[in-house]
Amino acid sequence: MKAKQLADRQALNVDTVRYYTRIGLLTPSTDPNNGYKAYSLADEKRLQFIIQAKSLGFSLQDIEAFIAESKLGHSACPTVREIMKQRIAETQAKIKTMQTTCNKMQNALATWQTLPDCNPTGDHVCHLIEGLIEEESDHV
């Protein structure tokens, strides 16, 4: 099948299939008559693997490493587990940071609800934000 057909079957943009081919994640054969790439069912299965791995948070670089392990006849599973542990820790840290930011935003908005609007001056842009700066520097 051609790149467009493969892309359609997996609900992807054809440029994504071409990109994965260009970086070596997909290795279709080339039709000697017209130079078109011919994708097999094995290529489709590989593409499904790539899509699933990406949905789990793995990068294309991670996926390349998994495929390289497999091509060497080694199980990629230990590498997959180790990287997943790292990704979980990274994601949990991001969630914690985002939750802290969200709490700060909610507290700021609650405080700002009762404050009047002010006109900007040469030194001030928005007293709401500037007030937080002053408040935070008082706590340091």
Automatic annotation (TrEMBL):
<dbReference type="Pfam" id="PF00376">
    <property type="entry name" value="MerR"/>
</dbReference>
<keyword id="KW-0238">DNA-binding</keyword>
<protein>
    <recommendedName>
        <fullName>HTH merR-type domain-containing protein</fullName>
    </recommendedName>
</protein>
<feature type="coiled-coil region">
    <location>
        <begin position="81"/>
        <end position="108"/>
    </location>
</feature>
<dbReference type="InterPro" id="IPR047057">
    <property type="entry name" value="MerR_fam"/>
</dbReference>
<keyword id="KW-0804">Transcription</keyword>
<dbReference type="InterPro" id="IPR015358">
    <property type="entry name" value="Tscrpt_reg_MerR_DNA-bd"/>
</dbReference>
<feature type="domain" description="HTH merR-type">
    <location>
        <begin position="1"/>
        <end position="69"/>
    </location>
</feature>
<dbReference type="InterPro" id="IPR009061">
    <property type="entry name" value="DNA-bd_dom_put_sf"/>
</dbReference>
<keyword id="KW-0805">Transcription regulation</keyword>
<dbReference type="Pfam" id="PF09278">
    <property type="entry name" value="MerR-DNA-bind"/>
</dbReference>
<keyword id="KW-0175">Coiled coil</keyword>
<dbReference type="InterPro" id="IPR000551">
    <property type="entry name" value="MerR-type_HTH_dom"/>
</dbReference>
